[in-house]
Amino acid sequence: MGAQRNNEARGGTSTEKRDKERTLEKQVGGQPFWMKTVAVLAIIFGLLSVKSGGEILFGAPVARLAAGNFVPFVVWFNFLAGFVYIAAGTGLWLRRRRAAALAVALAAGTALAFVAFGVHVAGGGTYEMRTVWAMLLRTSVWASIAVFAWRQLRRQQ
Question: Rounded to whole angstroms, how far apart are CA atoms 54 and 154?
Answer without folding.
Answer: 34
